[in-house]
Design goal:
Layout lengths: L1 E5 L2 E8 L5 E5 L4 E7 L4 H10 L1 H13 L13 E4 L2 E9 L5 E4 L3 E6 L5 H31 L5 E5 L6 E4 L4 E5 L7 H13 L8 H10 L3 H10 L6
Parallel strand pairs: 2-4, 6-8, 9-11
Antiparallel strand pairs: 1-2, 3-4, 5-6, 7-8, 10-11
Helix pairs in contact: 3-4, 4-6
Length: about 230
């Protein structure tokens, strides 16, 4: 991979055995990538990107304008989301093991007396990961035979700039824990997206064909995900 700059914009270039140039602007921060035929000359690629600068800046502006969640304080009656639904948080203190309980209107977080904001956030984050662990393996098992791939391992972590990532060489995928707050079909889209990268490491023609074939509504899912509030910066 190489890169060049046009003004304040960095363009990451990957040369592949493809026929056409593919320019992408990625949420949430507007990272720009270019997949180009192996023998493409740099001056030709620069000229192409210059013709698309207004489109690039429009996409980046849209991402910057995207709503962000206000910082959470993890206090009673604060709004939190799970699978796209809104819940009110209730904090309880008890001399017992920390726990989280969900009902149709609220998320009840029980922690030991004196537990501060960071500890409450940690307990809720671990619960979020547990919710994802209940869903992600089933999604992977469902999609492995469809895509004819094998996911060797998956990992959950906070990610500031991506919803997911794929290590093609190791056969692993990583998912942003913020996905637990989004509707489940958007989690499925990200899982399929990253699994498809096991077959097509970049966003080239092969990758687009895979998604078109196996997840026809992927563009709608991507747009919906990018419209939803991001985690706090």
């Amino acid at each position: 991979m190489s890169a060049f700059h046009l003004g304040d914009i960095e363009i990451l270039v990957t040369r592949k055995d493809v026929k056409h140039v593919h320019l992408s602007v990625h949420p949430p921060e507007g990272r720009v990538t270019l997949v180009a035929p192996s023998r493409s000359r740099l001056d030709v690629l620069r000229a192409y990107v210059i013709t698309r600068m207004s489109w690039i800046r429009k996409q980046q502006a849209a991402f910057r304008a995207q709503a962000r969640e206000t910082p959470r304080r993890f206090i009673t009656r604060e709004t939190h989301y799970l699978w796209g639904r809104r819940y009110l948080l209730e904090i309880r203190f008890a001399e017992s093991k920390p726990s989280v309980r969900l009902d149709h209107k609220r998320i009840t977080l029980t922690v030991r007396p004196g537990s501060g904001e960071s500890r409450r956030a940690e307990v809720l984050h671990e619960w979020h990961k547990a919710q994802l662990h209940q869903v992600v393996p089933e999604l992977i098992r469902a999609w492995e035979p469809r895509l004819r791939v094998k996911v060797r391992a998956y990992y959950l972590q906070r990610m500031r700039t991506r919803w997911g990532s794929c290590n093609h060489a190791r056969g692993n995928i990583r998912l942003n824990t913020e996905l637990v707050k989004k509707p489940r079909h958007l989690l499925e889209y990200v899982v399929v997206h990253e699994m498809a990268h096991l077959l097509a490491p970049t966003h080239d023609e092969k990758f687009v064909v895979l998604l078109d074939q196996h997840f026809p509504l992927w563009r709608e899912a991507r747009a919906e995900l990018n419209r939803l509030p991001l985690g706090e910066a």
